[in-house]
Design goal:
alpha/beta; Rossmann fold; Alpha-Beta Plaits; 2 domains; 10 helices; 14 strands; 31% helix; elongated; binds adenosine-5'-triphosphate; ATP binding; ATP-binding cassette domain-containing protein
Amino acid sequence: MNETVLTVEKLGKSFKHQPIIQNISFEVKKGEIMAVLGPNGAGKSTIIRNIMGIMYPDEGSITFHNSQKNMIPRHKIGYLPEERGLYKNVKVMDILLYLADLKSYPLKKAKERAKVYLKKFGLEGKEQSSIDELSKGMGQKVQFIASILHEPELLILDEPFSGIDPVSQELFKKEIRSLANNGTAILLSSHQMNIVEEMCDRLFMIHRGRKVVYGSIEEVKKTYANFKCVIRGKNDRAVLEQISGVQRIEQNEDVSTLYLTKDIQPAKWLKNLPEYMIIQELSLDRISLHEIFIDVATDQNLLQEAGENYE
Ligand SMILES: Nc1ncnc2c1ncn2[C@@H]1O[C@H](COP(=O)(O)OP(=O)(O)OP(=O)(O)O)[C@@H](O)[C@H]1O
């Protein structure tokens, strides 16, 4: 088991006596990508700001390795805030070196790494351009480079993919994965569920400031009905209700969606479908993280297996 880099324990924060986050506990381990998810206003940035010391928690503790609060070594943390923006009239290389220097990172090494990363992100030749001469996406790339230049042990990325094109998204994804493979602990907040599903190891989902889901992507999917089967064809609900392994049925005109219990074996289940069923089209897919998110965020709680209480 990898060593724990960040421990957030029972974190609580209120604004004007209104609780914003409550009893938030999770860990980020060396070499893993942990996602913090939740609908707008759920409290993701508040958690991140408390970790970064931009805000102080009312309750709970934040531990980096074994050191708490003001002992947290800031130079070992990289942070890409939700609010983008670097000094506008400063040159790209100058800002990168200045920020690395603030983290006490050696100048020569910072310059070498800056060149490598600028090339990687297609910004070769832009070293002497000022930030306001760059496009928004280019500026974001520079800010991302600034967050990783000093080789942080913990990297916190608040919505790293917002506002960047699909090609650049691939570059970001590749780089984030490679940093994790080299041991960086990564905490990432994003609204793009497909990306989270694809690249994160574990996730922590909050809703109205409280934990709703925490675990590996696999564990989370197991907690929710595993597969869904979509059938096009006019079938009576009564017929569908007799099929074993069906947890819940949704019908919309001729399309029926069957949410299946997690104990079914897909091939066996398909084989046992009644012969008299009308099937024009059929698909069997895993529930996506996107669907789980919508289920949680809209308070439906329909996808979670009946009787399960996810802890
Ligand atoms: N400084 C503040 N004063 C008062 N309320 C605040 C402050 N900062 C955040 N809030 C409130 O706390 C709640 C959580 O905000 P937060 O920015 O953490 O959400 P989020 O999950 O990051 O949302 P989004 O996905 O929209 O970025 C919101 O209701 C917000 O209005």
